[in-house]
Amino acid sequence: MKRIALSTLSLALLGTAGVAHAQSSVTLYGLLDESIQYVNNATPHGGALWQMYGGNLQGNRWGMKGTEDLGGGLKAIFQLESGFDINTGRSNQGGRLFGRQAYVGMTHDAYGTLTAGRQYDPVVDMVQPLTGDNYFGSTFATPGDVDNNDNSSRTNSAIKYVSPLFAGFQFEGMYALGGVAGATGSGQTWGAAGTYATGPFSIAAGYLSMHNFNATTFRSGWSSTSDGTFDSNFPANAGINAAYATASRIGIASVAAQYVTGPWTGSLSYSNAQYYHDGSSLFNQTQKYEVGRVYLGYQLTPAALLGLGYAYTKGHGDASATYHQVSLGGDYSISKRTDFYLVGAWQHASGEQRDPTTGLLVSSTASIASYGNQSSTDNQVMVSLGIRHKF
Questions:
Q1: What is the per-residue pLDDT for 374?
Q2: d(CA 376, CA 48)
C-alpha cells in the first residue's frame, strides 16, 4: 500500500484546513486478480467453457482510507472502496462507484469503533476469516453463496460498532435503517457477532437478519438495505436460491472454529440460512440451507500455501437439494505483493431445487460456489490459474 502524508494544502483542499495541525494520513490501495478459467458442463449440451475470470482469491478493487488524530486517543476514520471487473473495466456491486465499502466514523483504543455507511456485516467480519474462503476465495465458498460465506451481500445505511479487544474477546453489532416512513422494520438489516482467540485457537459466531421491503401484493424480487445472497451479477445462480428472492427476510446463523499448529491450519464451520416466506412471497414454505465446511491448510514454505476444503450443503423445507463440493488450492508468492495461484473444485448435486422461472421443482444441477456457472448435469469441475497483485 502507498501511504501519502497530507500536507496543510492537501487538507485545505479536503475542506479540513482548520485541523491541519493534527496527524492525518490517507492510504491509496488496490488489488488486481486475474485468471484463465475452465468450467465443464457449462452449456445445455455439456460443452466446456474457457474464459478470463477476475477475482478468484479476492475481488478486484481500488480504494482510499484515512485517519485524523483528534487527540486523547480519538481518531476520525473513513474508507471508500470500489470493485470492478478487470476484464471490462465496469464497476461491480450494481454499478456503484464505491460499492464495496463507503463509510465514515470514529475510533478509540479504549472505547471501540463506530462507523456509518455502506459496510460488511458482523458475520462477514468475524466468522468468515476462520473459513477456507478467507485463504482461497470463491472456489472454497458455499454453492450459490446461500449463507453469504463469500461476502455476496453488503449493507447500506448501516451503523456499526466494534468493541475493543478484551482478553482475546471482541464483539460487533450493526443496524441498518430501512428508511420507510411508518414502517420501521421494512427493509431493515441487523446483525451481531463475537470472536475469541487464545494462542493457536480461535472461535467466532454470529447472526444476520436481512429484511425485504414490505409489499401490498406479490414482490418481484429482493429489495432491502442489504444486497441479499443472490449474486445479481450472475443470474445463472438461479438454480440454487434465486427462487427465494421474494422472501420476507433472510436469517443466517454461522459459527466457525480454527486451530493453527506449526505449518498446519484447520477449521470447521457451520451455517444455517433460512429464507422466510409471507403472503407476498412467490413460494409457500420457508426454505432452509444447512452448510457444514472443513478446511485444511499447509504452509509448505514461507512462500507456498496449499489448501483442501469440503462443503456439504443441504436444502430442505420448500425444496430438498444436496450439494457436495471438494476444493483444492495452491498459492505461491514471488514477492510481498505478487503471487500466482491454482484453484479448482468438483461438485455433485442431488435432490430437487425450485426453478425461479417456471416455479416448478426440478432435478438439482451443480453450480460451483458463487460463480453462477449452471451445469447441464449434476456434476461440475472448475479450474482457475491466475495471478494476484496488491498495491
A1: 86
A2: 10
Q: Where are the domains of the chain?
A: 2-390
CA distance 388 to 319: 39
Length in residues, the chain: 391
Grid cell for residue 22? 493534527
- 3-state class (DSSP) for residue 262: coil
- Residue 329 and residue 336 in contact, taking contact as beta carbons nearer than 8 Å: no
Task: Give the torsion sign (CA, 11, 15, 16, 17).
Answer: positive
CA dist 205 and 226 (Å) reads 20
C-alpha cell at 50: 474457457
Give the whole-angstrom CA distance, residue 248 versus residue 232: 18
In this structure, whether the domain defined by 2-390 belongs to CATH 2.30.30.240 is answered with: no
CA distances from 95 to 51, 199, 233, 289, 371 (A): 22, 42, 10, 29, 18
C-beta of residue 330 within 8 angstroms of C-beta of residue 305: yes
Low-confidence stretches of the chain (pLDDT beneath 50): 1-21, 233
Q: Which pLDDT score is estimated for 22?
A: 61
Instruction: Dump pLDDT digits (tens) for 275-312.
Output: 999 999 999 999 999 999 999 999 999 999 999 999 99
What is the pTM (predicted TM-score) of this model?
Answer: 0.91
Set of cell numbers at residue 65: 482510507
DSSP 233: T
- Rounded to whole angstroms, the Cα distance separating 75 from 173 reads 20
Separation between Cα atoms, residue 227 and residue 83, nearest integer Å: 15
Q: Where are the beta strands (DSSP E) in the chain?
A: 2-5, 24-39, 49-54, 61-71, 74-83, 101-108, 112-119, 155-162, 169-176, 189-198, 201-211, 249-261, 264-276, 287-299, 304-316, 321-333, 338-354, 361-363, 379-390
- Measured distance CA(101)–CA(119) in Å, rounded: 5
Distance, in Å, from the CA atom of 52 to the CA atom of 38, rounded to the nearest integer, reads: 9
Residue 273 to residue 382: CA distance in whole angstroms: 25
One-letter identity of residue 204 = A
3-state SS class at 301:
coil
Looking at residue 372, its pLDDT comes to 85
Residue 234 has a pLDDT of 54
261-293: b (≥16 Cβ within 10 Å) or e: eeeebebbbbbebbbbbeebbbbeebbbbbbeb
